[in-house]
Structure formats: structure tokens, C-alpha cells
Amino acid sequence: MEYKQSISRRIVFAFVLMTAAVGGLFSVGIVGVVHVVEERLISRDLGGELDRILKEDLGTGQLPKLDPGMRFFISDGSGVYAMPPALRRLDDGFHEVFDGELSFHALVRDEGGRRFVLLQDQSDFEAREQILYAAVVTGYVLSLTLAGLLGWLLSRKVMEPVARLARQVRHRDQLLELAPPMAPDYANDEVGELAAAFDYAMGRLHDVLTREKLFTSDVSHELRTPLMIIATSCELLAEEPGLSPRARNQLARMASACEEMRDLVQTFLLLARAQRKDMGIVPQAGLRQIADELVTQWREPIEAKGLRLEFDGENIAPGQFNAPFLRSVMSNLLRNAMHYTESGSIHLQLSPTGFWVEDTGAGIPEEQRERMFQPFVRGANPRGEGLGLGLSLVKRICASEGWEVSLHPVEPHGCRFEVRLAVV
Predict the structure, then answer these.
(1) What pTM was computed for the model?
(2) Going by C-beta distance under 8 Å and a sequence separation of 6 or more, which residues neighbour residue 336?
């Protein structure tokens, strides 16, 4: 499993880990050297002293002459020279033995069928040894602390250009306007290469956004002209005398579809631009006004399918909203409800926080609800010739406007799409 830690923390951790490893090996080496030197030096001194006792003292029939802090034992000795049982079990050579709180260096030698043991008090040596060990431990802890501090200071210094580059890239104007290149502000190192890569990516993105903006402007200009011609033609035809009621009804539907297409074109263009400064020129409307228009538009096709359209617009959200976006969201939800409802009713309910559209269709299984707002995803039993983009468009519009759209099941069957509007 990869630990998601910042690079600064990784640098500090690397410094501390390296110091812990090197300092630990150094400390262990000091302790090992102390033990080796202790054994060799003291063993040599005790060996020389034991040779003197055996040759000069015992060899001439005299009692051993011992320095202060030394003890001497013989396996067949008596009195103060009688060997304790614990010393009899020691092997030949150098040892450390303890007697209560006292500690001794011991040299054991077997010679002529007899065992000789020479002890030397090492309490002072142990005290100095403990001081040395404490100094080693203190130095080890201090080295870890200094390593952490040095790693923190170094990480700040190393990551400073990276953080500055991140702040520059995060600036939204970098995405929408051709800002000055960032690479000249950095050294010719890895961060400079990253800045150059960002400059290249930003340049490509700026070119794409420029082409997209030109495309949307061209589309806006080219589509509005034929739509205006269609709308004008419908108005002129409606003034012709002698048209049958059926023909006038068809002309009204054509004019309504032309107006809806004009709103859709404007909706797609606004979503493609996604610039808040362009929203000031967008027509605004109240929730009840849009709802009344769409109820009038969708009542006939819904009732023609044998369904009931119920509308409750008493409690409405105050304020004005983006009219093309609100009309597109509500219209797509009504269309979706009509396509997936075979019998029963469709209910449009306005509320102080927004609105919801409820149907009595087959409903959407729980495992598919999260995916319904994704592009090209359709219900289990697709209706009509749609591509599964209606709910995706609703989700994009709501995200752009700060609205919230949610899907809830309805008992015994059906579903409800609820939209919470951000009041301006």
C-alpha cells in the first residue's frame, strides 16, 4: 500500500531514517569497540599480574601480594584463598563476575592440575563505562533531532519552487488566458523542466480553448440565422387565411420546437464557454414562469400518450434564474419521465427550494442510480431514440449553476428527480 505523504515529509523521513541507520551503526560500533578494548587490555593486565603472583609470590613460598581491589583464589586453597563454587564453573580465560552490587573482571587459569582465579574490582570502570554509554545514547537522540530539523529546513528550501509553481498553475487565469511562460522563472533543473512542460501543456490548452471559443461563436452565428428564418416563416404561415385548425396546430408546434431549439443552442454554447462573465447577458426568469411554459408545452404529448400531467406551483423558490439552463433542466426531466412511464401520471411540484419531477414508471434499480447521470447511460428498458445524454446534461447544468440534482425511488414504483436551486 502506497503511503500518501507529502514530498516534504518524505524528505524529513529520509533524513531521520538515514541518520538512525548511520548513527545506530556508529553507536553499536562504539559499544563493541569498548568491549573489545576492555577485554584485551584488562585481560593483558590481569594476565601479567597473575604471572607475577605465581612466579614471584607463590613460587618463593610467599603469600600473594595483591593491589587494592584485587582478590585471589586457588582451587585447593583455604581461608581467604578458598575458591567459591561459582568460580569453579568458569572456563579458562577472561570473564566478568558479580558479587551483589560489586562487579569484577576475572581471569581464570588452569595450571599443574590447579585452578587460579584473579579478580579485580571494576566498579570505577563500570561507572565511566555507563557515562560513555549515556553520552552515546544522548548523541544518538540529538543526531536524530538535528536530522529531523535539517530535513525540515532542507525540504522547505527544496519544495519552495515546486510550491510556487503549483500556485501559478492553480491560478484560473492560466487556463483561460495566455499568461507569460513560467519556465524562465526557474533554474535549469527538474523543476525548470516541469515548468517548461506546464508551459507547453498550457499553450496547447489555450489553443484548444481558443478554437472552441471560435467554434461556439461560429455555431451561435450560423444556427441563429436558420432558426430565425424558421420562426419567421411559421409566423407568416400562421397569418395565411384558410388554414385548418390542424395546420395551425402543427404550425404552433413547429414554432414551439424552434423556440426550444434556440434555447438548447444557447444552453450548449453557455456550457461550452463556461465563463461566468458571459452569464450577465443571459436572460433571467422565475421558476413559476418557466414551469408554466413547459407545462403548456408538454401537456399535449404527455396526455397523448395516455398519461396525466399534474402540476403544483403554489410554493415556489424566490429569485431569478438562468432561463435557458432552468428550461433545459426541467424540460429534460419531463421528457425523461414521459419516455419511461407507460401508465399513470407525471407530477411536477414546485417548492421553496426548487422543484421535483415524479413519475409512476418502472423505476430505476438501486445499483444503476449512480450511473444514470453519466453520458450515454440509459435505463434498463430504453424508450425512444435518445442517446442517454439528457440526464448527463442536467447534471452538467446543475454543477455549472451550483444547483443540486438527486434521484429518489417512489413507492410502489417510479422515481423522483429533485433539483435544489441556488437562489440568486
Answers:
(1) 0.49
(2) 390, 391, 417
